[in-house]
Amino acid sequence: MSKKIKIVVLGGGTAGWMSAAALAGVATDKVCEVVLIESEEIGTVGVGEATIPAIREFNDRLGIPEPEMMRKTHATFKLGIEFVDWGERGTSYIHPFGTYGKTIAGTDFHQHWLRLARAHQVPPLEAFSFAVNACRAGKFDFPAENKTAIDAAYSYAYHFDAGLYARYLRDFSERKGVKRLEGKVVQVQTSPDSGHVHSLLLESGEKVSGDYFIDCSGFRSLLLGETLGVAFESWKHWLACDSAVAVASERGAFFPPCTRATAKGAGWQWRIPLQHRTGNGYVYSSDIISNDEATVSLLSGLDEPAITEPRTLRFEAGKRACAWDKNCIAIGLSGGFLEPLESTSIYLIQIAIINFLKLMPGKVADPRVIREYNRLIDLEYERVRDFLILHYHLNRRDDSVLWRYCQRMAVPDSLREKIELFGRRGYIEQYRHGLFAPPSWLGVYMGQGLMPENVEPLVGVVTEERVRDELSSLKTAIDRKVAQMQDHEAFIAGYCPAG
Ligand code: FAD
């Protein structure tokens, strides 16, 4: 009997092709045989254009050349997300992929900044973030290789056409030996003894069996949810938005290296600049406005004329009670969904497949491996969930029931403690793995106006005068470097113009 494990991936959206590409590219055909089934008739969800820097690790691990991938997916660079009107209306802040300043005498930069800001006029914290300054100026360059340089203190991700990215990964996977089957799965056969998925029956009559089944069937969750009956845990009471309407518009004249998320009465609107067009969508609560009202609001809030018909999608925030049950692992929308405010879904796909590779089972999985996998995935989901809730909870708007509800709602204990710790003395919890790093939390806390009552006592080891000098020379150095950078648009034209 062959020692190779046979893995069947159901679904050819971003999750399906990322899973197949990683299995074929990392585990290779020495360890597993991969078959992917997709149905063009059913299609994919067709949204998901913004990413976070972790995607670069995924692509690098597979040996994907960046300029080629960017050319083929019409990608642009992303240094962060601009949040407009999330604190008070009329305000804007950027959550950057990078740090604020540098530690002074071993204590976090923001603690020193807070100490001065409480008593004096100082530039806002974001003036000391390289990535924020580059975003606001519409500039881009790669981080410096010298890790101590001021222009090394940031990272970057991409905006891309997710359909083209899946297509790119499909070509990659097929070159690495993944077998693709086109067709609709009409029946899932399970073993009467173990309850494991045994095979998938296609409309054509073909039967596909395997050792493991990766369920990338989208919101329907055909294998883990429908067949194995793993329940969906709803987080709608914390993340109330349950719908989105998406539309593409013409390419914009302003081409910033960041996503924009503008808070609105019933949710928020995204703007994602790609090389050839702009992606837009309104994520909203259907308890507050109808699909038609959301569509009118989206279209009237566009910077550029629409070039496609608006498309409405329904979803619910939450996840399956476990991501891996028996011999079935749900990756992507079939395993859970957290709204795209921080562009985390593709990351959750990536981390799911990387954890699977780390815990790669033999033909039969050890139950401890399954438990560990589920623990890791739960942790990732809960951290992303808490970070998303933070944006809603700290809003200072009073123009709709949604925002008032979010201000008052009871948040998970894990988040409540984080907010309290920051509110007391600006402390931000650190963890070694997973999203999000302290600068991300800091960006949102401060961006939405949560000013700590106190600072860490250790800031007292340096004089205020020294801190003022450090702030001033840092700001001068950032401003000078950013002024020397190329415009984002010109950078792309030289590096990876879409063919
Ligand atoms: P799908 O794209 O739905 O693919 C499902 C696949 O399963 C398809 O190929 C389908 O044909 C196949 N299939 C289903 N049933 C059968 C069957 N019976 N037989 C055969 N094949 C079948 N993520 C981000 O990271 N960044 C973003 O900016 C972002 N924005 C988003 C905005 C919105 C409004 C939404 C809803 C999601 C967004 N996402 C974003 C999430 C992102 O779109 C998804 O995580 C990603 O596309 C993965 O989808 P998927 O592959 O799991 O499912």
Automatic annotation (TrEMBL):
Keyword Lipid metabolism set for record: no
Source organism of the structure: Microbulbifer rhizosphaerae
Signal peptide positions (record): 1-24
EC number from the UniProt entry: 1.14.19.9
Binding-site residues, FAD: G12, G13, T14, A15, V185, L333
Name of protein: Tryptophan halogenase
Keyword annotations of the record: FAD, Flavoprotein, Nucleotide-binding, Oxidoreductase, Signal
GO MF: monooxygenase activity; nucleotide binding
Residues forming the catalytic site: K78
Positions annotated to bind L-tryptophan: E342, I346
Xref: InterPro entries: FAD/NAD-bd_sf, Flavin-dep_Halogenase_NPB, Flavin_halogenase, Trp_halogen
List of residues binding 7-chloro-L-tryptophan: K78
Source taxon at top rank: Bacteria
